## 1
Amino acid sequence: MTAFAVDDPLDRRPGLAKPEGLLRTAAGSIPPSGLVLLGILSVQLGAGFAKELFAALPPSAVVFLRIVAGALIMGSIARPRLRGLAWRSWAVGLGFGVILAVMNLSFYEALSRLPMGIATAIEFLGPLGVAVAASRRRIDLLWVGLAGAGVVLLAPWGGAGGAAAVSWVGIGFAVLAGACWAGYILLATAAGRHFPGTTGLSFAMIVSTLMIAPVGITTGGTDLLRPEVLLIGLGVGLLSSVIPYSLELQALRKMPKHVFGILMSLEPAVAALVGVLLLSEILHLQQWAAIICIVAASLGSTRLARRRE
């Protein structure tokens, strides 16, 4: 993700990697910054609808629906060729798929225990850590300090309750999701060297589906076959993967990558706003301050990455 100084700005979310004609035509009349913001909004709306689906299905079953939708779409666009793959390519593809599955599952588990803005902000620590680790400037310690302050402000030290209560278990899942996101960035780069085009992502989606299927089917049971559940699951897949990928690809063809990264850094704040409007997740002033700290750390890291370039 460009916001965190990685090569591929689309290594953020699993999903579609090529825009469809209809969406491409519609996006042609929208400014690139608007496309990025629409993509962010789409992702967070998808997360919001997924969270509402938790009333009918456990998070693991919702993750299964999302990954299956992504795998079907990716498989129809970039079918991976398994014949003749070297063992190193198999290792990279399998590792990519496993980290993708764990990342989605841990984030949805966090989402079921935390407000959207908080879960997304904590998850952002993963790619931010990758960006800072790649730097050797002392100023980057400031962004680490800001991010750390955000986590301290989010932690439920006093055990406060309320609509926006935060649990240590939820924080743990969000941290795990962030760590997996960091691993996802590194493995996505490796997959780009071992697989042509976007077939590495397609291969990883298939592996993730096979990995999540036993858990998702067991926990979801026959509820997975309910038409309304399938419809919402498809909507989550489209909002979380297909639409944002398409919009981001269009935006990247028209704007500098560092501008794209700065806009993507706003995602935790957008997640918090969607949580308030869609799910009535009212955050305390301290929690808003924490999210602002993490967004500021991301913005600062992105701007310095641009200067280094």
## 2
Amino acid sequence: MVTENLPRKPDIAHVRKETGVIRESPGYRVFRVANAIVLLLVCAVTLYPFVNLVAKAFSSEGYIAAGEVNLLPRGFNLDTFRVVLGDDLFWTNYANTFLYTVVGTVIAMALTATYAYALSKPHLKGRKFFVGIAVFTMFFGGGLIPNYILIANTLGWRNSMWAVVVPGALSVFNLLVMKAFFENFPAELEEAAAIDGLTTYGVFLRIVLPLSKAVLATMTLFYAVGLWNSWFSAFLYMDDKSLFPVTVYLRNLIAAATGTQEIADAGQAAQVASNIQAVTMLLTVLPIICLYPFIQRYFVSGVMLGSVKG
């Protein structure tokens, strides 16, 4: 046929691949610029409070009181760090926070992972019932007074670590995300492991968990940050200062600085100044800031993999 001898129209994708040039439409360029501007604004709004906190931590009280400290320290001052770091109660409460966070995260991950794995099996009898019980707790709670009576009187956990780490040990949101992740797990791997002689617990511990690092790291970060920042449970169920987490120590500093109470621990009779608050807050958030970069690479993938289904 005559049409067979006509020159063929060059393939646009092939030409772009050969030349190495990909032309962007004007609309896409506008989108990229707008997207970059929005992201820069979000970063600025997000980072400003932390940068301002660091600036206040290294500034003199007079400049802070005058409102002259924004992004850079004024009147460089390290005396406040010496005061806070020299307080034995601060280090005791700091160690308590580490202990509560580690123990609470281990308990929470053990409960969440086992519960989610069981719920991910379609053949589980009463599966809908157990899912319903978990979801029910997202909308209805027992109330503050019944919880206090249960934990402080019935269980006898007043002035105990368990009053901090046990009541919130299972997050239903984390449970549902992990359940969805396990539902997408290849069943062939579990079947092959079972044929090789592994029990259900062996499959879970030796096959499923090692291949679920992304979602496990994400849930660990969620639980650890929540426990590290928690203060209300300790404030409610504890009255022994040596058992407080560092967040309650920080809360007492802020309360003292606003004139609601005085702190006389470690020979400090004067009211706590604003830069002492900033120093304590900075020291409190540093461990989480140092930990996050090592887990961040799992963060997005863990949430996305667990939210594809369910």
